[in-house]
Amino acid sequence: MSERGIDAITLTVIWNGIMSIAEELGITLRHTAFSEGVREGDDFSTAVFDRQGRMIAQGNFSPGHLGSMPYVVQHVREYFPEDTLKPGDSIALNDSFMGSGHFPDVFQVMPVFLEGAIIGYVATSAHQVDIGGAAPGSQKVHGVTESFQEGLRILPVRLVCEGVFDEDIMRIVLGNVRMPDKVRGDLSAQHGANLTAADRLAQLHRDYGTDLIEQVHELILDRTETHMRESLSQVPEGTFSFEDYMDDYGADTDPIKVAVDITFKEGAVTLDFSRSSDQVPAAINSYINYTRAYAVFAVKVFCDAHFPQNAGGMRPINVVAREGSFFNPSFPAPSGGRAILQIRIFDAINGAMAKALPDRAMGAFSHWSNPNIGGIDDRTGRPFVAYDVILGGYGGRIDCDGAEGMSPVMNCSNIPVEVHEANNPIRVQQMTFIPDSGGAGKHRGGCGLRKDIELLNSSATLSLLGDRHKYAPYGLFGGEDGNRGETVLNPHLNAEPLGSKEIRELKKGDVVSIRLSGAGGYGDPSERDPAAIAADLADGYITER
Predict the structure, then answer these.
(1) Residues 214-249: tens digit of each pLDDT
(2) 20 to 30 A Cα–Cα from 419, which one of 52, 134, 451, 454?
(3) Rounded to an integer, what distance in angstroms lies between the CA atom of residue 522 and that of residue 145?
């Protein structure tokens, strides 16, 4: 029996039931979504909350959404008290401060009723393929100086009333986006997935009783908090610091300092990003919810990787940044391109944690790229947006090399070439690992990825969203840095270099070659096993040089 008098079997059955609802919620959303980013790229998340709005369970999806959802639900409850909600209602928002840091991420929160009373909430987030703004895909960085330029901002609204979409609100939303069919489809998929999860959660309460399930909630949250505090207490007490730099926030702009000070004390931790740069006049700032989300994720990776994340596990973790700084900007700071910060937040924390827990740290990740190519499709006369996620490799670790072609931190997926080509007027000429790009070490870093994309349309707008063109991913403990990334326009002609966050108008036949940085190595390269070197040569990860 547990300390609350709940036997282990009942606790396990209820807990697994709640977890399965969160996972099934995501599976339903993936299978019913319209856009490639959600359906193929897994750029969405799901979670289940109790009636107090505390996160009890989450699906295994994107940390940036999941770490923001507890705050999303609290904002929803402030705008819509319990007595104003009805079964089938769905509250939507995408505000950067309230949500996960940029407008394309639209959240839907649904109250779950049983016998006329709210027993909990289910929530989904999905990155919409377009939400309006200055460029297709709504992630233009340079030239965007305030959030009002970034597209449609949605404060909490009742998008669905008793199971029926509010068509007045939908007209406003769909009238301000470039791809209304896909946006409507994904919003409908979110609502449908929430409905199925709400039904399952209500049935769970019928089967076991709300009183018992709420006791399980308290037990789960308390145990998770206790376990997290125990894990944090195993880290040496003290403050550990690290700083790095992002390339810039547009052509001819200064680098952005990414700095963190992590203090462990008495089973709790504070991560302070206040020494980082001030907020910048470009759409790349990280609102505090987004900063919190990836900071919490990083702490879990180092201290508590296998225990579930919920409201209890987040209690001992405090994330702060001075107001007006890059990691806690003030409205209306723009933030559409904030997606590329996820790896940089983790890399900064990893660099600091290497001083506290060197056996758990790794070389810096290969940076990823999130380009958008959009315009009017010559074949149909309708808008298109080719939203891509190009993912690289892990850094070397104390006991293994970095893996290639993975999704570090973001937890999304490479969208298949065939899907891109079937839905957009583009051709992928090549997609391959870049030899010799990973940092050397006793355990080498993962290789960068190269993807060359040809435009088949008469014209289109390219919005680049990348980094590590100037500041290479660092190696650790004698491991070498990974190679820097680069983006090249028409590599087989004049090979014009592009900035990591550049906006460029393309014409038919143009080829954009996106080349990710390699990941950092770990340990002295002279200690590398000769058999590992031979295997790398055979696999093409390195060459004779």
Answers:
(1) 999 999 999 999 999 999 999 999 999 999 999 999
(2) 134
(3) 39
Overall pTM > 0.70: yes
Beta bridge partners of 506: 460
Residue 243 forms part of a structural domain:
no
Are residue 368 and residue 220 in the same domain, yes or no? no
Alpha carbons 291 and 299: distance in angstroms, whole number? 12
The 3-state secondary structure of 102-143 reads CCCEEEEEEEEEECCEEEEEEEEEEECCCCCCCCCCCCCCCC
Q: How far is CA 328 from CA 1, 99, 348, 371, 455, in A?
A: 45, 13, 16, 25, 38
Residue span of the structural domain in which 527 resides = 362-545
Q: Model confidence over 365-386: pLDDT tens digits?
A: 998 899 999 999 999 999 999 9
Q: Count the Cβ atoms, other than its own, within 10 Å of residue 497.
A: 10
Q: Last residue of some domain: 174, 196, 225?
A: 225
Q: How far is CA 217 from CA 55, 224, 361, in A?
A: 10, 11, 33
Rounded Cα–Cα distance for residues 344 and 195 (Å): 36
